[in-house]
Amino acid sequence: MPFTIATWNINSVRLRAALVTKLLREEGPDVLCLQECKSPVDKIPAEVFAAAGYPYMVARGQKGYNGVATLSRLPITEAGSQDFAALGHARHIAGQLENGVTVHNFYVPAGGDVADREVNEKFGQKLDYLTGMRDWFHAEAPQKSILVGDLNIAPREDDVWDHKKLLKVVSHTPVEVDHLAETQAAGKWVDITRQDIPDGRLYSWWSYRARDWDSADKGRRLDHIWATDDISAAAHSSRVLRDVRGWEQPSDHAPVFASFDL
Questions:
Q1: How far apart are CA 84 and CA 136, in angstroms?
Q2: What's the alpha-carbon Rg for the chain, to the nearest Å?
Q3: Phi-psi category of residue 104: left, alpha or beta, with phi > 0 → left and psi -120 to 50 → alpha
Q4: Less CB within 10 Å around the terminal CB: N or C of the chain?
Q5: What phi and psi, each to the nearest 5 degrees, are found at residue 220?
């Protein structure tokens, strides 16, 4: 069964419901995973998305913060959620498609502004969350699975606009990159985006602080699509929809897509 999956930090699903609908209608992914929904599940405008042809949703939400929702035009059933580091945050939801593929939708903590857990609790929470993911994948080895989401780390030198300048900036510090690599290795996850686009700078996030984000192009690749090694060879056609960052009242993230033939 061929299908296309997309991931997008929407930065308020209610505020940007029209943008979600626009993406669904123009690009037509079979599965769209949203992060930072900032809404209780019962307040997510699911009826709007159903009217656009996406009647299925699995989600975790909370008022004003965090939140993950997976929209699908293919039948999908909830397959559980995890609260890594016991933060009490809505940051993970899993759903299973009829072909047996499990889709994990993650929103890893951003980690605050200071890359030091001794003075910044949020940075410690981020590292602990990644450790929890790593340990879970060691204990329950994932198979026939796709992991997507805003992982809030740009791991490679060409995933950021300036490697040297960002080495001490949260999202690209060596300790975060190491934690993400351990998490990836624990589940034998393959970075599908970089499997398809192995070379060159590639970003999915541009700060709202930039007056002209497009020309400045000081981006980072924070949004990822991974697959377990048993299905990674079935992936293809990865792309980042950079133009979406320029839509009216946009999220500061752009959607990332990949297709699978399974």
A1: 9
A2: 17
A3: beta
A4: N
A5: -145, 145
Each residue of 110-121: pLDDT tens digit?
A: 999 999 999 999
Domain-by-domain residue ranges, the chain?
A: 2-261
Distances (CA, A) of 168 to 139, 173, 224: 32, 5, 21
Cβ–Cβ under 8 Å, residues 21 and 29: no
Name the CATH architecture for the domain at 2-261: 4-Layer Sandwich (3.60)
Separation of alpha carbons 41 and 86, rounded Å: 20
CB-based contacts of 110, cutoff 8 Å, min separation 6: 122, 126, 152, 170, 171
What SS3 class is residue 224?
A: strand
Contact yes or no for 114/123 (Cβ under 8 A)? yes
pLDDT, tens digit, for every residue of 123-138?
999 999 999 999 999 9
DSSP secondary structure, 105-168, as one string: EEE-----S-S-TTT-HHHHHHHHHHHHHHHHHHHS---SEEEEEE-----SGGGBS-TTTTTT
Q: Is the pTM of this model over 0.85?
A: yes
Please state the separation of Cα 100 from the chain's center in Å.
21
Q: Cβ(251)–Cβ(22) under 8 Å?
A: no
Q: Pairing state of beta strands 31-35 and 2-9?
A: parallel
Give Dmax over CA atoms of the chain in angstroms.
Answer: 49
Name all contacts of 73-82 with Cβ < 8 Å and 24+ positions apart.
73/30, 73/31, 74/3, 74/30, 74/31, 74/98, 76/31, 76/103, 82/132, 82/133, 82/136
